[in-house]
Design goal:
Blueprint (H helix, E strand, L loop, with lengths): L17 H11 L5 E3 L5 E4 L2 H9 L4 E2 L24 H13 L1 H24 L2 E3 H6 L2 H10 L3 H18 L13 H14 L5 H7 L4 H31 L2 H12 L6 H15 L5 E6 L3 E3 L2 E3 L4 E5 H4 L3 H4 L33 H15 L2 E7 L5 E3 L4 E3 L4 E6 L4 H4 L4
Parallel strand pairs: 2-8
Antiparallel strand pairs: 1-2, 3-5, 4-12, 5-8, 6-7, 9-12, 10-11
Helix pairs in contact: 3-4, 4-6, 4-15, 6-7, 6-10, 7-10, 8-9, 8-10, 10-12, 10-15, 12-15
This protein binds protoporphyrin IX containing FE.
The site of protoporphyrin IX containing FE has 29 residues, from helix 3, helix 10 and helix 15.
Length: about 425
């Protein structure tokens, strides 16, 4: 099938309602690949099969020339995310050491305690903006735990990550001479670990043969990739629960042991469905390094191709094959959403996925102890970083503790 070639797709388009946005995604999927003339021109696909195939073929569709359109940080490449093999290989190994399944499992009790503390503090006043109160706090603290930052440094890491992110997305104030930066903090922390080694990842990282610049690039990439993404995922999950009392009741029954579901399994399934349904990372770009084809269309070497995870995650060709499940534009708590592309696919598949899904599952388990409601219908999720990321800016919820049954009160969950 030929591309529509209307040259119009623009992921920076602001102010779309969710219905308009997802209708646009359906148009995008009407052909395997579409060309847009915006931002210097790019190809874009929203089909699950094409997105997966492009992500798998990293040798043809490279990331090293940047994955944001337009470039978010001209001249600076994000560690891992915007690198190709062989440079990518060693960096990925370090990421896996820090964020792989064993490390994340070991950190679960600490991350559960962080989540519990922030949700309880949020509930003390009966609610407010969930993004500021909970979603904006847990992810950076969880990353700090994985890296091995001390408790006293965590607040500064959070503050400086927010400052950096706001600048990257055009919302911050310009840097002032001599002001503290995330990079300087990371270098200072690494020097402290070299002087006095601890049993943590930062000590291991500080012992690697890396320049300060490489060390800062690695930790900054982690902080940036793991902050706003997980924050958006938390907001989406909380919104879904707050707007669906039946789903909340089901989760609460699982927590009490009075329903048919296992709490952890139900929370994990809701997390996958939430990531599929409202994907925090909407899209990423690649650059073709050789003449190739996408969905039958010729793509020349040097041309950019955008993989639209958000559209692929609602592709009926992938998600409407089971007639017992709701259509893909709807949230279905009983859908098996594994196989979604919210974490990408292949070589660059999110190396923080274990951590992110743990954080989200723990949030779901924690929220099972509360009754939630939407206090004010939020503005539609806002695309940031050039439309690549998307989440609620503000989410006003009310929250009250549910009476805890004796059986549930004694469990760790
Ligand atoms: C719900 C939360 C998250 C979502 C939806 C998400 C999504 C993604 C996606 C789609 C990619 C692939 C990008 C591409 O193919 O170009 C990716 C890569 C990456 N993510 Fe995540 N992410 C999340 C959380 C995290 C966390 C918590 C961390 C770290 C603490 C993290 C670190 C990274 C890194 C370092 C990469 C680059 C990996 C590589 O290129 O090898 N992410 N993420």
């Amino acid at each position: 099938m030929a591309a529509t070639d209307n040259g119009e797709f623009d992921h920076h388009e602001p102010g779309l309602t969710e219905a308009a946005r997802y209708a646009r995604y359906a148009e995008l999927r009407a052909c395997p690949v579409e060309h847009s003339d915006r931002h210097g021109g790019f190809w874009i696909t929203g089909r699950h099969a094409e997105v997966e195939a492009i992500c798998r073929d990293w040798a043809t569709f490279a990331s090293g020339q940047g994955v944001f359109i337009p470039d978010l940080t001209p001249g600076i490449r994000s560690a891992g995310l915007e690198q190709d093999p062989p440079e990518h290989t060693g960096v990925r190994r370090l990421f896996v050491e820090m964020l792989g399944r064993p490390a994340v499992r070991a950190a679960e009790p600490e991350i559960r305690a962080i989540t519990r503390r922030h949700v309880a503090t949020f509930a003390e006043t009966g609610g407010g903006d969930f993004m500021a109160g909970v979603a904006g706090r847990v992810p950076v603290e969880a990353i700090a735990v994985m890296a091995g930052f001390s408790g006293s440094t965590v607040a500064r890491v959070r503050e400086l990550t927010e400052q950096l992110w706001n600048r990257l997305t055009g919302r911050g104030t310009p840097p002032q001479p001599g002001e503290p930066t995330l990079g300087r903090l990371f270098v200072e922390e690494a020097e402290l670990r070299r002087a006095e080694p601890h049993d943590d990842f930062l000590t291991r990282l500080a012992a690697e043969d890396l320049t300060d610049r490489e060390l800062v690039a690695f930790l900054t990439s982690t902080a940036v990739a793991g902050h706003e993404t997980t924050m958006a995922g938390m907001g989406n999950l909380a919104y879904q629960l707050a707007s669906d009392p039946a789903l909340q009741a089901r989760l609460a029954a699982a927590a009490d042991g009075t329903g048919p579901d296992d709490l952890g399994a139900l929370a994990a399934r809701l997390v996958e469905e939430s990531l599929r349904h409202r994907s925090p990372v909407q899209l990423m770009a690649r650059t073709a390094v050789a003449d190739t084809t996408v969905g039958g269309e010729a793509v020349a070497a040097g041309e950019r191709v955008v993989v639209h995870f958000g559209a692929a995650n609602r592709d009926p060709a992938r998600w409407a094959t089971d007639p017992t499940r709701l259509p893909p534009d709807e949230f279905d708590p009983d859908r098996d959403a594994t196989g979604h592309l919210a974490f990408g696919w292949g070589l660059h598949r999110c190396v923080g996925a274990f951590l992110a899904t743990l954080e989200l599952r723990l949030l779901g388990e924690e929220l099972a102890r509360y009754e939630l409601a939407v206090a004010a219908e939020p503005e539609p999720p806002v695309p940031t970083a050039g439309g690549s990321f998307m989440g609620f800016e503000r989410l006003d919820l009310t929250i009250t503790p549910r009476p805890v049954r004796a059986a549930a009160a004694g469990s760790g969950a």
